[in-house]
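Researcher: Watch the backbone:
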Amino acid sequence: MDKETRIKELVQKLNMASEAYYQKDVEIISNAEYDRLYDELRQLEEETGILLSSSPTINVGYEVVSSLPKQRHPSPMLSLDKTKDPEALAAWLGEKEGLLSWKLDGLTIVLTYENGELTQAVTRGDGTTGEVITGNARVFDNVPLGIPYKETLVIRGEAVISYGDFEKINETIDDAGAKYKNPRNLCSGTVRQLNSQVTAGRHVRFFAFALAGGGPDVELRSRQLEWLRSQGFDIVEYVPVNRETAVKEVEKFSKKIAEFELPSDGLVLTFDDIAYGESLGVTSKFPRDSIAFKWQDEMAETTLDHIIWNPSRTGLINPIAVFQPVELEGTTVSRASVHNLSIVEQLELAEGDRIKVYKANMIIPQIEENLTAADKEHSPGRKAIEPPANCPVCGADTRIHEDNGIRTLHCPNPECPAKQIKSFTHFVSREALNIEGLSEATLEKFIDEGLLKTPADIFRLKDHREEISRMEGFGEKSCDNIIKAIDKASETTPARLLYALGITGIGSAGGKMIAGACDNSWERIENLTLEELRNIEGVGDVIAGDYVSFFKDEKNRAVVEDLLRYLKLDESSIRTGEQKLEKKTFVITGSLEHFANREEAKEKIESLGGKVAGSVSSKTDYLVNNDINSGSSKNKKAKELGIPIITEEQLLEMID
């Protein structure tokens, strides 16, 4: 085993041992063995000059910036020409040898090293100017902070977040509209965070794909990549190909994509001979030494029925195409997001058009082409769909915003019921006030009847008991059940109220962290300063700014004061008492006997300093399941990872 590989193995093994010891109170190796491995790692780091950001021999500090500075690239970073035909790749290669690699779908980053140390990281940006994200790159999971090569070195690569980490992060976001659409969007926002501590928690990884300056004087790109590997970098997976093998290797990659853990939107073919590739020069748009292969997504033709203009809680009105159902990648699809007004206009969509649809990267339904609009001669009299002049929900005049050439449709009415319905639905959701019986449909009826205009009106519904009982679909019993649920919800916690208010960026976990930092004092919570918020783990400048602005707004203050007339907040400090479950992570599955539901069990665990996650991972300490011998996927996963499965009784013993 070479030294670089051994370094990575030691870092992983030592970090696993530390996690087991400090988070699970379990020794998987002895102290003497840990010290021996630690010393070996430090010795190898000194010998090779490779120092990974995740190495236990260093502590990487976090950086907070007010904005990301811009920097111009020494030479333009061009896009690649593309094809979806494997045979075209073989023809493009001709008689030359090439390298075929994954085209990772993340954010391209340029790293610069001076005297063996990472000194700068810049995003691709628009290809001419990028943003400096050095502090964030330092906390990527696998970026070397130190390398043996001591001259100036410039590397290009892709920053990505795996599907697994993407799903885990989305699980922590309760508002469906706020969830990230795909790993690339999440990665883009993460890499450009102003607080590197947020970036560190999202497990960004960097895969080098090109040497842009410095390094060894070699003739082949494959040797460059292997040299980068020897310096401690993870490199993109690649295979050598020629005209005879290119199509077959594309086929092999396409079979692996379904199980590949990283987002990929295709492949890249590059000439292995560096001098030959450079001699071809560039066009105004593309370099001639590489070409991209895009997956040949399964296409289907169908008929566009209509466009739904769907207002959201933020006021953005999203266009959604509804078409005759078709089968794609094994599932039935009848809708596709068209993302924004610009795309609707570019596609020249009209009701009844024949369209081609596909799943982008085999996942997200998209419209590929408007066949009817393309056939100008045989589509006379068509009337292209236009954005509604009025909000489909409240009737207010809509507005078109244009930002960097992208046109989006908005409802400017702050009293729009669509905004209210989403806000009210959020307010009564399980993680917020947890009011059973108030579904979105029920809330919509109350709003239409004029019974709900502000959140506090929910607690005044008892004054309209007779009116509600006479409404269609309601009776005295259902009305009584709703009133009882509302009365029960009036006794709540500051963390729940904070989350229920819908402040931008404040999720359920964030509400609990902020409430905990304020010892559950509502007065302190609503009067936090920017500086105080920045000192709370996980709160960056942007979130802090939105938070302070929310509580400075007189209307928001009035809403909160109105609510506090009806709410009884439990302000007993969550920091009092022994934090018996501190730094322990639990996953709860199956039916419960002693707790009313999982939410109650979750609250108990969190009140004692523990955390509750939605899925089993290597960071889980205990899986709570009364059926220990169950064949469930969570039980199987826990057993594979060696995670203890405990019953509810055992959990109570830990608590008591």
User: Anything to note?
Assistant: The mean pLDDT is 84.
